[in-house]
Each structure stands twice: as structure tokens, then as C-alpha cells.
Amino acid sequence: xxxxTNAVAPAFTNSLVQTPxxxxxxxxxxxxxxxxxxxxxxxxxxxxxxxxxxxAQIALRDGVETIARLLKDxxxxxxxxxxxxxxxxxxxxxxLEKSKAAIERRAELLYSDGVAQAEREFSPxxxxxxxxxxxxxxxxxxxxxADGPSKIRAxxxxxxxxxxxxxxxxxxxxxxxxxxxxxxxxxxxxxWVPDAYKRMTGSIALSELAPKFAKAAxxxxxSFYNPTLAAKVSTRVQF
Length: 239
Hints:
The chain has helices spanning 20-29, 32-39, 50-71, 78-121, 129-143, 148-158, 160-168, 171-174, 178-192, 194-224, 227-231. The protein is an all-alpha fold. It folds into 2 domains: 20-117 and 205-230; 123-192. The protein is rod-shaped. It starts with 19 loop residues before the first helix and ends in an 8-residue tail after the last helix.
């Protein structure tokens, strides 16, 4: 009697890794919208990292397309497919990590440049020493009043001299707590040194983007292939 063994159809036809998480990741990563969700939109970030974001998206797209072709490759068995998919995953992760590193470097540079520019603009001036001393006293007196913080902020937005004193003076000298002082310094930069503010906020945006690349790289490792199956290639007998 002839017996026919029927292969069990995969539950997720778009993925070598049979989990809903892997299938969902590959489905999204196959679309431009999904890749932008995972890795950001190049047009919404600092132009210097646009190419890095785009390169990462291309690498992810190409990796997903290769996995899709592997699923239809009848010349390889399951173990061999996972072996090749492991190579594809490593190549894709390498590209994502390279872009992530470039984004982090740019974020650091933008922030340091922005801070340096603000510090130059707000640096103490010997010719204004007496005025700045009076402003410091004025701010310290206001800080103890109920409506003091709002009046200090208004004065800072109205006068660059006040903004400069708030920026370069330690918080304890003007009677402002660290959290409020940090916020006022940031607002002073936005009001009087907009280019520096743009650099600093651009840096923050990139710093928030970088972890997405690490998360995407982890998803690639978990979704492209099964390491246990790929490792079975080492048991192949050569003769």
C-alpha cells in the first residue's frame, strides 16, 4: 500500500518563522508606510541623516523581499532556507546598526553645536556686569512671589539681557529650582537664538529615533529566521 505524507500548510504564508509577531513585522516592513513607522520618515528629520534613514529603509525592504523569495525557493529545504535567511538577517541588521550609529553621532553634534551657539550668544559681558547684577537681584526677588515664575518668564521673553542672565547664571544665584531653570534656559534659546534651538530640538528628535533602529534590528533577528533550524546545517554529512 502506498502512503502519502501530507505536509502541514504553514499558518503564516509570508514568513519562515511561524509566529504572528514575525508575520506581522514582515507584512508591515514590506510597505513604505510600515518602514517609515519602524525607521522614521527621512523628510521629517535633519537633512544630514536623511540618506542614513533611507539606506536603512532600503536594506529592510531588500531583506524582506529576499525572505519572500526564499519562501518560494523549491531548491532548498526548510533548514537551508533558514540558513540563508540568517545571512540576510545579519546583513540587514548590519545596515540598520550603521544608520543608527550615524544618527547618534549627528544627534550629539547637533546638540553640542546648539548649546555652544546659545552659550556664545548669552555669555556674560563685562560691559553689562552692573546691569546683569541688578537683573539677577530682580529675578531672585521675583522668584519668591506667587506670580514670580510667570513674571520672570515674561521678562525673559521681552528682554535678551534678562534671558542672558537666566541662561548663564546658576539656578541657586537667581533663586530658581533646577527643573524650572532648565525649562527657562530652553525657552530663552528658542526666543533669542532660534537656530541653536532648532539644532537642539533636532538632536532630541534624532535621539528619540535611534532606539527605533535597535528595536527594528531585534525584530529582524526574530522574524527573518529561526536560529535553531539554521544551526542544523552544521549536522550535514559531507561525502
